[in-house]
Amino acid sequence: MTRATRSATLALVISSLVVSLLIAEGALRIAARFAIAGADRLAKIDPMKVLIEPHGAFGYRQRPNVVFAYGNGSTASANAMGYRGPLVTIPKPAGTFRVILLGESTTHGWGVVDSETIDTYLRPLLAQQARGRRVEVVNLAFDGYDAYQVWQRLLSNGTRFQPDAIIANVGINDVRNARFAPPLGDPDPRTLIWEADLKRLRREAANGGPSFSTRFKHYFFLARLPGMMNDLMFRHRPALKPEVTVYPQAADNFQRNVLRIADVARDLDVPLILSTPPSILPRTGDSRLAPRDYWIRDAVTTQLYRDTLAARLIAIQQQRAAQGQTIIYVSHTIP
Q1: Are strands 165-169 and 272-275 parallel, antiparallel or unpaired?
Q2: Are 102 and 261 in contact (CB under 8 A)?
Q3: CA nearest 236: which of 41, 29, 32, 46?
Q4: Considering Cα of 253, then 330, then 260, then 89, what sign does the dihedral take?
Q5: For 120-160, how does the pLDDT look when each residue is reduced to its tens digit (9 = 90+)?
Q6: For 103, left (φ over 0), alpha (ψ -120 to 50), or beta?
Q7: Beta bridge partners of 97
């Protein structure tokens, strides 16, 4: 075989490979468009379209100007400053009373449209009592937050808004931390969700932008396929199940982070409202409720632990109020 023949053969092989790859890429894109054979999952794992971004040491928040879609058809819009709700200005205009709302998915508004969030209802209610002052409510809550993430959000984002009052509505997601054997770190890697994506994003931010691998996966579905298969085969994280073993020491971790939130409010010299999201979990058991992945052991144990966290909030309020800090605790009752 002559050199020319070998070159022609090699060129033919390369051309055939390139054409095959392009055909495969096109087939995957068509399959994704029509949600065929799980190919739609490839379309959703674009590493340059992750809807969260890192902030602080181990914190995360919404990326600005993105929309989160929930399973019930509702959506949550993040504005240009990376939170849900109307934009406010920095520095704060004179004569404005600004409230920072902190919390978890219930406070952020999981499964409800933008016009049905807690902050949306708070604005007109507070305006009625404002005696002509402008009232703003900035919703810095987000899905998946525990007290550590709430503290990080306040520390890294909340203080720049120059709040006149802070509301911390916490005590749901910290229940999941009772699954982990003590001691809990500060923070503990077991409590950090989405950390794989966040590690990559922090690394790329330090290096000035997305890596070649990230960009390649952004443009080609085929490049995402090995990672997806690897996740399915080796890294699949089973859904959390109600655990039999409960480690109540996790409440100490919750208390430590709420105290940090109280420290920020004290240093800013603004009032702090502590609150626990209301619950309908039965105390005596209810066969009509199917087990949820956020339960520990069962509905009764979960509610008892939530009561433990609420008791920690009350204790913090009483301690800090005795020290002269302006702080109250608000309880909820559901019929």
Answers
A1: parallel
A2: yes
A3: 41
A4: positive
A5: 999 999 999 888 889 999 999 999 999 999 999 999 999 99
A6: left
A7: 135
